[in-house]
């Protein structure tokens, strides 16, 4: 029983460390997402300015840059959503493992 407990403890430590790493990644992606959103807003404002001024060369260039900024933002947003899902999955796995250990402990105590 003691070796099983040590294995469970080791598994919990590994899961907790993995979850901490995922949280660090999500924090980095959150900051990146915010910055990418700011860049899209800046590109949109520059394009609006060029449109008000009627500058067709700048309009064409800034439209292309706005599209690139939006594509980059989408990639960052997708990565952020993916990491958030993985965090939720990892937390669920930890909770499930804890519940199974508690159930096994209660059952072994009854026998």
From TrEMBL:
**Highest taxon listed in the record's lineage:** Bacteria
Q: What is the protein name for this chain?
A: Uncharacterized protein
